[in-house]
């Protein structure tokens, strides 16, 4: 086994509901993946990519407690294994099945953990997981902005969604780790920053810059800032619920995934309203903030930009993001991978999936006719140029990445046995002690 830098892309599988839960926004369907999945996997290999952010559609797979339709998942995951493509399995991407309802449902965490456990048992060769994608954004868009799923607009509904989503992620990690002791969790989360537009905006900006960390603080068992503790308690979280997160001891199996788009930085007005700031600090500065807080290996797990009228806008953005990745690495942060998201163009993300317009967004490495875009050509060349140059930084992990083709090897089983023993050792360690350090 040779450690390698994780050059990745993803198949967009967002599936929230809108219009009071009456309309399901299924990006896999809108982007044609159900019909063209074989071709899509061909394109991944054409680019020289071995790592794919990918997951089954939860709303059509998870039919009830212990009830599943694995038909599509069996086809696709068996083919990924045959191709020796490593999936970073995205089990919940902004939506839940109709029978669960939405993220206000207190039963969601336990139900989801059961789903994650049964997935891991069915596909034991899978090692890399993002149980719940962008937990902060999912809670914010669903329960604070009122755009998706429950479509609520209060701090209390936001805290309820957040605690349910993060608890689901934690319980899923625990369940998966029992099945696959050497599993690695790459938590894809939006990396945000809020800039005060004037002195009167400093206070609301400070609050937002504290709130942006809540999902990862809870997920990694880090004590939140005192003001955020009061915020959580004032909006429905109990002490017992908070202490549950402090007892999470799987940080040693985690990679912090940082997503960065040009929309991740915000200008804050005095009244607390925000608007897009564009790229001010950039990925390098903001990722250093997150790394300084959590001290975990990092992966750049999402970025993209529209291909504009000149045709080179996305290509230039790719170059800029890669330059930021190299800057982060050269500053001593253990960064293990980079992702252009997604493989193909997306649909209706110009309205953040709030409207069902069918508008194609030219964000992909390929268009929806599966023809390569200039950024696809540029990414393919970037991978070719840098793959052998970068030293393997995955040595900072306690458990190595095992390719699907290696999963039945004797040494791979020995690694799982070692990971299981390490897991048992960590289970007896005090909270917040277990961690991965470079």
Automatic annotation (TrEMBL):
Pfam families: Glyco_hydro_1. The keyword Ribosomal protein does not apply. The keyword Hydrolase applies. This is Glycosyl hydrolase family protein. GO terms for biological process: carbohydrate metabolic process. It comes from the Bacteria. Keywords: Hydrolase. GO terms for molecular function: hydrolase activity, hydrolyzing O-glycosyl compounds. Residues 408-438 are annotated as: Disordered.
